[in-house]
Amino acid sequence: MIAAAVLTALAMACAVGAWRLTFARWPWRTPRAAILLWQSLGVTWGLASVGALLAYALAPYGGGVVFGLHAYADSALSSGTAQGAVLPHDLPRVAALIAGLTLLGVLVSVLLAAGAQTLLARRRHRVLLSLISREDPGVPGVRVLDHPGATAYCLPGLRSEVVVSAGTLSLLSQDELSAVLAHEAAHARERHDLVLLPFTALTRALPWLGVVRDAHSSVALLVEMAADDRARRYCSARRLATALLRFGTAGTLPAPSGALGAGGEQVMARVNRLVKPGAALPRRFRYGLVTFSVLLSVSAPFLWVYPG
Predict the structure, then answer these.
(1) Distance from C-alpha of 202 to C-alpha of 176, rounded to nearest angstrom
(2) Which residues form the Peptidase M48 domain (predicted)?
(3) Predicted TM-score of the model (pTM)
(4) What confidence score (pLDDT) does residue 85 get?
């Protein structure tokens, strides 16, 4: 029962931590470390929530969640007994077992479904791009859409592609265009689509929870800020900020499903951050944040095998 109690407390702490993190502004000063923290909170919450239910249900076996599941399966197959333990027949434990396995199944299935839908949408869009886009000698390695609207996005994958519209080429200066392309290249290089995928899946699984929607929005903004920081290594921050403002005033077209666009929501927050960057967080704070995120991520799996 100790493991069940600790896992319950851990799941609640992750939920409260995620709720508080949605209002914090210090993550903007270190978006990569903050993204790692968000991922750790999400993974730990899922494993702790499932583990708490299973640990309570399988407590009669006294060997932790992993051993309990194995012993339960043996007991079921042997019609009631396995290694001296009996099936947990009381209603609360049976209900907890069903709830835990159902929650695990839902989380895994929505993650797989979100991944499959994203891959399918990208495949369809790649086929469409092969028909309606073209190459331009002025922007080598970039697909150009003959559309007057302004748009720029990255289509991630094993063969990532950066796409811009003809309207974008006429809207931005050469320096501004280089800044936007560096931003999109950062999305492709760091595979930010994989960062967002679990939060997108969680939003589909629990659409009624405001903290889940806020978490997705917060991580999406941090992903854009991380790409902005990477782009700043190759271009002027003010040029990128100007390009974002031009996109905002021109009314950019939304990025297609499965893609990551240069515009998006909360553009002004990114512009203000580029124009007036805050002081960098101390290195030891960032290292401490990374260490905490790693330890938090391994805490739930450890409690799954803890024989308490």
Answers:
(1) 35
(2) 122-205
(3) 0.86
(4) 47
